[in-house]
């Protein structure tokens, strides 16, 4: 598969936020850091593995954490932002809330 560019990743993030009714983190340096991780992962693994998590070894084992992950909506509902802080709830973004670490919802890898 052709290498994805940083611009394609930024477009993916913008579109994903629009489709889900979220806001991409307006802090440029924070957002670009997460996008850089997505860029590395999509070119390394071939899918948008969450940049804040480790692979469990295959696309199927990682299907819950392919961005936007299945944990994003419950975290956004509960805290105002996803685990990486890439996507925010609009009212949280407007209030200028700070991103701080939140609990991991992903179950541990099965042995
Ligand atoms: S926590 Fe989920 S939605 Fe947020 S960047 Fe990682 S995979 Fe994407």
Description of the molecule:
This protein is mostly helical. It has one domain: Alpha-Beta Complex (Ferredoxin Thioredoxin Reductase), CATH 3.90.460.10. Helix content is 42%, strand content 4%. The protein has a two-stranded antiparallel sheet with strand order 1-2. It is globular. The mean pLDDT is 97. The structure holds iron/sulfur cluster (SF4). The site of iron/sulfur cluster has 13 residues, from loops.
CATH-defined architecture: Alpha-Beta Complex
Q: Give the CATH H-level superfamily.
A: Ferredoxin thioredoxin reductase catalytic beta subunit
Instruction: Enumerate the distinct ligands.
Output: iron/sulfur cluster
Return the domain count. Answer: 1
Strand content: under 5%
Series of H and E elements: HEHHEH
Strand order of the largest sheet: 1-2
Low-confidence stretches: none
CATH topology: Ferredoxin Thioredoxin Reductase
What characteristics describe this protein?
single chain; 111 residues; mainly alpha; Ferredoxin Thioredoxin Reductase; two-stranded antiparallel sheet; binds iron/sulfur cluster
Can you summarize this structure?
This protein is mainly alpha-helical. The chain has one domain: Ferredoxin thioredoxin reductase catalytic beta subunit (Ferredoxin Thioredoxin Reductase). 42% of the residues lie in helices and 4% in strands.
């Amino acid at each position: 598969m052709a290498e994805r560019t940083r611009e394609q990743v930024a477009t993916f993030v913008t579109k994903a936020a629009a489709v889900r009714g979220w806001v991409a983190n307006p802090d440029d340096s924070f957002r670009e850091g997460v996008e850089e991780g997505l860029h590395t992962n999509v070119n390394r693994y071939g899918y948008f593995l969450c940049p804040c998590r480790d692979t469990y070894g295959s696309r199927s084992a990682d299907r819950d954490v392919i961005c936007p992950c299945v944990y994003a909506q419950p975290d956004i509902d509960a805290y105002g932002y996803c685990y990486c802080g890439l996507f925010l709830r609009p009212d949280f973004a407007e209030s200028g809330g700070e991103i701080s670490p939140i609990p991991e919802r992903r179950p541990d890898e099965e042995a």
